[in-house]
Amino acid sequence: MSYAIIGLGKIGTAIAQAFAHQGIEVAVAGRRPVDALAAQIGPSLIPLRVEDAVKADIVILAMPFAAHREIARAAESWQGKIVIDATNAFGVPPEELGGLPSTAAIAQVLPGAKVVKAFNHLPAGVLAQEPTTPQGGRRVVFLASDDDAASASVAALVNRLGFAPIELGKLGEGGLLVQARGNTWGQLIFQDVAKFD
């Protein structure tokens, strides 16, 4: 399984650090050069052009929501890929999304992709901390998807990164808890929750 992170802003960098801490190889790309930051984070990060990074089996979208159409055009095909949407569409009017949750709107421009919402509910500073809390629990990463198999694959990755996956169900159901709608945040956004095994 190959991985890529598109965008090395605050959220993308926090996710990349989680990969680096586990020594998992991941391609990183952005609209600006990422070579220096990738080298600073760790040797398991491979800087690539966006057009090459999107060839990975699992692609994590960590760029601003407004860039999703541009990124969609970077791949020859999204068929069969798992795409993790870590973006937030706060401030985007719901009518611009056709009334859909933002992740469902992204899925529409990635034909054939299996899209999972994850890694977007924690502030970057919290996400960049150790996945194990000082109290001994594992920090929760919420997941939502309309594809159960893709959600299970992302849950396995979340576990591998040291976090505890909690599945919320479909994008338009439990997934609404981690989606911004216009100028309103979903109820679970910013909630730093730990799971004790």
UniProtKB/TrEMBL annotation:
Keywords from the UniProt entry: Oxidoreductase
Q: Where is the Pyrroline-5-carboxylate reductase catalytic N-terminal domain?
A: 3-88
Task: Look up the domain of life of the source.
Answer: Bacteria
Q: Name one GO molecular function term.
A: oxidoreductase activity
Please give the name of this protein: Coenzyme F420-dependent NADP oxidoreductase
The UniProt entry, under InterPro entries, shows:
NAD(P)-bd_dom_sf, P5C_Rdtase_cat_N, STEAP_metalloreductase
